[in-house]
Amino acid sequence: MVLNYIWIAFFLIAAVVATVRFAFGGEVGVWDAMIGSTFDSARTAFEISLGLTGVLSLWMGIMRVGEKGGVVETLSRWLSPLFCRLFPDIPKGHPVTGQIFMNLSANMLGLDNAATPLGLKAMQSLQELNPRKDTATDAMIMFLVLNTSGMTIIPVSIMVYRAQMGAASPTDVFLPILLATMASTLVGVAVTALIQRIRLLCTPILVTLAVICSFVAAVAWAFAALPRETVNVWSTAIANLFLFAVIVAFLVAGMRRRINVYDAFIEGAKGGFEVAVTIIPFLVAILVAVGVFRASGAMDMLIDGVRWTLNTLGVNSDAVEALPTALMKPLSGGGARGMMIDAMKTHGADSFVGRLACIFQGSTDTTFYLLAVYFGCVGVTRMRHAVVCGLLSDLAGIVTAIAVAYLFFG
Q1: Residues 6 or more apart from 253 whose CB is under 8 A from it?
Q2: What is the average pLDDT across 34-56?
Q3: With CB atoms 3.0 to 4.6 Å apart as the test, which of 18, 55, 187, 250 could cross-link to 296 if both were Cys?
Q4: Which run of H or E residues covers position 69?
Q5: Listed residue (152, 242, 143) closest to 196, CA to CA
Q6: How far is CA 344 from CA 162, 167, 173, 233, in A?
Q7: What's this model's pTM, rounded to 2 decimal places?
Q8: Cβ(81)–Cβ(102) under 8 Å?
Q9: For residue 58, which phi and psi values (nearest 5 degrees)?
Q10: What pLDDT band is residue 354 in, cutting at 50, 70 and 90?
Q11: What is the model's pLDDT at position 345?
């Protein structure tokens, strides 16, 4: 229901802004831009879904092999002490625990192409446990918030873009991104747990938090010790090695259990194709609304309003030039990426604005995209507090990104 109101609001705000621009500025072209954006966005949505078809088929096939090979079951058993606290509605040792872990691991390593199909598979398993198929469960919302917070330990793609844009040190945003995305995740989990009345101050969660913080500190120290020109190479190699190791481990586990690995893969891959087709309408809906909102000039007016407010209050407004990336990220990953590249191109990759845009890009994930795709693939229409928790997580990431940018580069 919340997403319904937000979707309608995008169109209504766009219509009002376009009408004002036409009435007071005579800008006839705004209507052409808005209509053009509907066709472009619909085509983009289909292209995204088409591009996902192969990846979804691949990773859902691999996951099916892992399930029959017992890997997912083993992961679920190992993670039960922690996940029983975060997801109390999931039965102890249920295979979905392993699927959630695989999705979060892919996200942390910046493996977007693998994370999405793994997340969709986990959401389908959560839907099987859902007594009310049209309503999101607490476990679904917690899982979604963990995804929208975008916890990323190795932001490979952002460092590559910075290198391509001529940054003297492409990796200098690594630690700021790490801090911002951790803040986003911690706030998202804390808010969701508060609403769902989950007690976080327990031994499994505190131990896990300590392990994650120690691991993040170790990664930061290791990357700081490496020559800057080799950081991108090592981070990419580690991510790819992890991905390939997962595939090999699943295949070996299937062989040990003497299952027909090929047939299991085909069985899972068929499900991936069906999911890719299912999410097309949801992608079209959200991307068209975002496209119209941008084409109307509403985004530019919002940015100008924020700049005017900060200047009036006498607050440093250097961060405003990078704000389009932050505001676009919850709506469209591709749009935010374009804003980030434009900020580096306009102001310089090593400028404060260019670096802050990169930190914004890595601090959170695309909340509304994930809401549309993850809930759309299982037919959930009543999202309860998912939108609020996701946006609060985004806000925490944005605020922290600005703070660390001033701390490191201000």
Answers
A1: 65, 66, 69, 70, 71
A2: 82
A3: 18
A4: helix 29-69
A5: 143
A6: 8, 9, 13, 22
A7: 0.77
A8: no
A9: -60, -55
A10: very high
A11: 83
**Residue 288 structure tokens:** 């068209």
Q: Do the beta carbons of residue 306 and residue 323 sit within 8 Å?
A: yes
Higher-scoring residue by pLDDT: 289, 195? 195
Predicted confidence at residue 226, as pLDDT, reads 65
pLDDT tens by residue, 90-118 = 888 788 888 888 888 777 766 666 677 88
User: What span, in angstroms and rounded, lies between the C-alpha atoms of 32 and 38?
Assistant: 10
User: Would you say residue 205 has pLDDT above 60?
Assistant: yes
Which residue in the block uniquely carries the two structure tokens 């407010």? 309
Other CB atoms within 10 A of residue 91 CB? 13
- For the chain, the first-to-last Cα distance in angstroms comes to 41
Q: ∠ CA(35), CA(40), CA(46), 5° rounding? A: 135
Yes or no: say if 157 and 239 are a contact pair by the CB < 8 Å rule.
no
Residue (of 370, 371, 383) closest to 130 by Cα position: 383
**Spatial separation of the C-alpha atoms in residues 207 and 217, rounded to whole Å:** 15
Stated as kind and residue range, the H or E segment containing 312 is: helix 298-313
The shares of helix, strand and coil residues in the chain, as percent rounded to the nearest 5, are 80, 0, 20
Can you list the alpha helix ranges (DSSP code H) found in 109-227? Answer: 112-128, 138-148, 156-164, 174-196, 203-225
Which residues are paired to 135 by β-bridges? 382
Please give the structure tokens belonging to residue 238: 């580690």
Contact 74, 101 (CB under 8 A): no
Q: Tens of pLDDT along 337-350?
A: 777 887 888 888 88
- CA atoms of 146 and 190, how far apart (whole Å): 11
CA pair distance 78, 96, nearest whole angstrom? 13
Mean pLDDT, residues 313-337: 79
Q: How far apart are CA 104 and CA 86, in angstroms?
A: 14
Tokens representing 399 are: 């605020």
- Contact between 373 and 191 under an 8 Å Cβ cutoff? The reply is no
Position 91 scores a pLDDT of 87
Helix and strand numbers (H, E) in the chain are 19, 0
Q: How far apart are CA 25 and CA 19, in angstroms?
A: 10
**Beta-strand runs (E) in 188-309:** none
134 exposure class (CB count in 10 Å sphere: 0-12, 13-18, 19+): exposed
